[in-house]
User: Fold this.
Amino acid sequence: MKSKPLHKLLALAAAASLLLAAGPAPLMACSPGFPYQVFFNTARPDLPLKNFAAGRLGILQPSYAKSYLVVAYRYLNGSPLSAVEQRSMLRLWQKRLRSLSGNSDYSYKITEDYLSLRKSALGPKAKEKNYYDSSSNLQPDAFRQAYDTLQSLIKSQVSKEQIRNWIAAQDIVFEVAGAETKDATLPKLPPLSSKFSERARQDRLYQEASLMFYGGRFKEAARLYQELAKENSPRYKSLAVYMTARSLANGAFGQDESLSRETATDFIDKQLKQEKDPEMRLALLDLKAPLFYGELSREQLLEATTEKILKPGQERFGAEVGDLTFAMDEMESSGCYGEVEEEKPKEGAATENTDTVTKEMEAAKLEKEKRQWNKYFEGRLALMGKQDLTDWLETVQSRYDPYAFDSLVFQEKKKEIHKLKAAHALAQFRKDKSQTWLIGALLTGGLSGPERIDVKAAAEKLTPTSPAYLTASFFLVDDMIKAGKATEARLKLSQLLKESNQLSPTTLNLFKAQYLAVAKGESDYLHAAFMQAPEQNENDDYVPADWLKKQNLPEGTYTRESAALDNEVASDLNRNLPLSLWLKLCFDPALDAACRSRLTRVTWMRAHLLGNRSAARKLTEPLCRAYPNLASLIRACDSAPETESRYILAKLALRNFGLSPYLASGVERHGLKINEFDYYNQNFWVPMQAKAPVQTKEEEYSDFFKGENEDRGAVLKNESGYDQMLLQYYKTGISGKLSAAERKQAQEEAIVLSRLSPSNFLGEAVFDKLKRNDPHDQDLEEMLYRIVKLAKWSPRTELASQYSHKAHNLLHKHFPTGKWTQKAPYWY
Amino acid sequence: MAGKWPLLLTSLFLQAGPDLVLWSWDYPQDLSFLKNEKARVAYYAGTATLRGQRVFFNGAAKSLKIPDNIERFPVLRIETRAAALTPEQSQAVSDIAMKVLNKSKAEHIQIDFDAAQDERPFYLTLLRELRQRLDGLQKQEKPQQEQPKQRLAHSDRTTIGITSLASWSTDNWLPKDICDERVTMLFSLGKVGKSDLETFTRQKPQTVGIGTWEEAVNRRLKELGTLKAARTIYLFNAHPWTKESFDHAKEILRNN
Assistant:
């Protein structure tokens, strides 16, 4: 609850300008990162972001980070971004993506490149440190610069002695840069020999200047960099000018009392007058901005950045957006708006120092918290309300953080504030009838209730060329669904989906989700059910590993993953779709080949479990094509007599842990291939109950308690965005689209599947093989071993334990000295 | 009379509640609110990343404020990215651990890692190597040294703790003597079966770690008696700690 001093805040804003670091995300220590599919991006639009920067806003979401909402505001406000502004905006987002996607990977690669080159230059016997310190003082670009210099030294064929001398000096520079504390005296760099080539002196001057910079001697660093800049060397000119400016700026931020903001600003202004290169200009402007903002109050800072953002054609547009949004986020600290005063305890009342906590003390504590939050929101809304842009951002943005702790008092206050914001957005819309506040009213309050007739009318008037059109359409369709106007909604959605390739994947998926609520027949429903995610991510980065490749796609295009199902839809179809329709889906040309392969695998397994071998045989060849390594066993399984067929199926399933009769949502089994063992126990399948269990709210809160979650794939679910609306759309389900006979068939199949666990289905097949007097089958010992282990390799059940025990006894009886028997001394 | 002592001690322990340790992770952290609390702090000291043949150390750079009267010790996180896991890397990580310990002046260090199956031999080597180095140092110490505060209560030497995934409790790959304290982490469990947690809790672990935001999991742990049985509870918050979040964590543990 403590306030940050203003100069510290501004120094942070300076850091935002210079490093463009992303705001802090919750940290999840100690959990392995698994891949997951993202059907709906909620924190940002889909990649490449150049589409959004160019005005393809898609369906806007209140959960977007502020920088995206600022860009949306400009378009909604009738002031589209110029090419220069778009470029500068992409520069900000690109750096943020890099930071979120494991900036460390980027810096490690650069460091590794330099160290490898260093090693090859010094030879194999060269001494190396056994570990390398990285520090915030030492940015990856320093290694990139060192790499370039060393490479050019090698190419220019200077003497080996000169290269070694340069490396020895560079080792010292990096040592000082990585050190956590700065010594009073800096180490000396090795002397240059007179035999060295002409460039040695300039290389050394740069190293001397860098030594001063990393050692915190900014004035001396600026002097040396400037000296180098004056030499007009093509290798160092621009870099030395930039580093002079950076040294002066760093010094001006209180790190060197002999340097002032004026000195730094004057120098940067002088350079800007001559500089033509856009990247260099932006880099200098980024250094200058905090020098200016550092003099301003909070209110002035918001006013200054807002003014620049709204004035078209700003060269530094993206960085201004970065500064504004960073400052707004930093000002979320409640202490920024003042602390409430302590109320004096009544005479004779217990104080907090006493051991007993009285009801009065508890009540006083709650009262104080309420007053604190009231003060916070009053201050915050008043400050942000001074500019239309900040007012809009503050009103519209709504983020959900599953890792945050909100006290009951704060939760209540947030609900109250949410209502206030919806009312405020509506009032603003009625006041100025602008597109920005129309979207504000929709994102905060939707179209619910007759009192929003004017909002609905304005939304209906929008044409497809309006940047607000898709967002407004989403809310209009939602309103139709709620009002039971399915035909109207279907018609509207059909129009919107006509040019689906033009829509971003998230926007397309949101419309498809709405379609599920109004689809007419099963075919219509199933086509909407399979969605192509814009990306697949890993860890908690929320950025795909191939983000840079996606970012480089041409404008107007997007990438889409193979079609898959969201969690709720997968559960529904796995339970309520009859085999005949699964079979139909396997040959549906509207689905991509990878999706059809998954469907074929699942349907084939399902058909066998249901004892429908003729259905399975229809898939023999497509399945063999999808899994050529398994083709001989698949063919054998489908052509053998029934009892032998079950044994062959057991062999396939016990060796291929991902063979399941259920289609997992998103990324199945942590992204493993079907024959790969999952160390996190998603091996084989877990039978689904024939009817969906009713979950309590508490159980819904955590996947942990979901009895069936083992058969789910990984999908990012985020309670921000439109998740609650999506759940309503998904509730319709497939059953209502089926004929009575199909529904009956599906129910019967669900009951059969619910009784077939991998242990009893596969176990009986293996035991039966043994019973058929065939203990000499070469794989039987291995299969018994796998039944023993099945209980350990998948979520434990009593039934699996019973089969493990039985298989263990049979294994040791029939194959007492076998190699697989040796591996199974226990049952589980 | 003598027979009553254990009972008395037990009841005192129950009254006192478990030993609380806050994991202070890689955020700017102001823990001034702990001044009058009974808690210790395990603070993030940095990450050693093993990539290929190399080791990189990224030391904690965020601000950390802990009241003087609160005991604290460092946590070293280890991450691997296509690492060769060589003896040289093990040596490098133990060098880093020693550096972290020296800087902290604590006599306990916690090593935080997720070991995939093929990485397990490396971690066993590392932990043994670190133990040997600490024991070697111990022998050189003067006998009349002041009793340090951050050692584990039952130990008279510099101690090593590790964080342990819940699943490790059932596959027993870690020898009991590999470290002095093993914190089983009962949060971010992913999709494990309900029965796995029950199996694990039957072992009544003495030291566990919980996440403050996982209401349903924490409630289940209470029902299973896991929190009551634990003598030391580590608390992880996915945001910077505040007085409110610490109070909330205490609320989770109340009447457990």
About this structure: Chain A touches chain B through 49 residues (CB under 8 Å). The first strand of chain A starts at residue 36 and ends at 38.
